[in-house]
Input
Amino acid sequence: MPNTNDTLPPPPFKIKMVEPIKLTTLMDRKKHLKAAGYNIFNIPAEEVYIDLLTDSGTSAMSDNQWSGLMLGDESYAQCRNYFHLESVVKEITGFEYVIPTHQGRSAENLVCFALNLDETKVAISNQFFDTTRANIESIGAKAHDLVVQEAFNTSVYHDFKGNMDIHALEEYLNQNSNVAVIILTVTNNTGGGQPVSLENIKSVSQIARKYKIPFFLDAARFAENAYFIKLREKGYSDYTPIQIAQKMFSYVDGCMMSAKKDGLVNIGGFIALNNANLYNRIKERMVITEGFPTYGGLAGRDLETMARGLNEVLSEDYLQYRYQQLQYLGNKLEKANIPILLPVGGHSVNLDARKFLPHIPQSEFPGWALTIALYEMFGIRCVELGSVMFAYQNEDEKWVYPELELVRLAIPRRVYSREHLDYICQSIIELYKSREKIKGLRMTYSPDFLRHFTARFEPITE
Ligand SMILES: Cc1ncc(COP(=O)(O)O)c(C=O)c1O
Output
């Protein structure tokens, strides 16, 4: 059922510390855009008023987490904070081995190494996040997405648009014997933070077991996914978020987690799994690249805040407020007829740039153009999930553009108030009224991988 919540109940926390932000002038923002090569990632953060670039590493930590920082045990090996983290992760996931990493992509890199991915292998997901895809493709393996078709239609309602297409998965596995791993991304960030149902996780698990393929969760937003299951999947309304999370993990062989999302920390991640061989391979590798296996590139204090954050994120009060904040923003935009991805996801509201700017072809990057216009006019920074991030050249050197051209307004956790959300809404509504004035862009520099981070552009003026 679509949510029609118009009100936002008060947050289950109060403010103890503030960080000033300021709205710069239009002239300043134009200047910064030019200097940044019209790439929003190059804009100095202090020149941004509302920063919706990402929900990753941008959470406000609690007093409980800040006090945990002072209890960091900075011993090189076997620090006490590792054991705290290990016990929290074991309780949530049920896995035997817990390996901290400095963030999600290093966990991905280590798992790809341990699984021996190479040019002959394929990895399958509902939809890979860009760093996971890049980790797989940069070693020559193939990353193949099999999300349900509903995910590509922004206006159709579906409770679990992040689900894997089970029939397509079986068909693929029947025809290909080189699949080395299946990874479900929960929630599906690339598709707009859409959840995956427990039923779907279970079905993928049964198939993975039948074909003897390791099955992992990319668990960056596992708590938000668990809350969607509680709200939308039959039979789970009386479960607590941790009970649902435990069920999610019970169907998989392991997980990679960027704790910068549902770990409520500014840096951190981990791998958790049951297979002793994989664990040993990861340990051997990580001492070369990441650090000793009980600290994984982090300080003891970071491990402590991560352990505490993982407990806090499963609070039902917190998850309910988080969900309602996203619904509030989405509903206001929907009521104003702004084209957004429906239903609203767990961490972001996503503008449908092809509908917002139908006069700009994908070869001129409508999603990117929308991010530039939102910053230029209103000081709001958000990110394109569209042609810059996902278009690629096929064997005939023709550009293949993604079906979805989204602009993601990622909401940092426990950071912005209702007044901020109202400012975001008003700005987007105003921009929509004069949308035909927005022009496309030409790319002037493009790197080989993850081009959105460093590509440069110029506006098309003619
Ligand atoms: C689903 C998902 N997986 C992995 C990552 C990578 O995590 P990190 O940024 O900590 O390397 C992200 C980051 O946004 C993500 O959203």
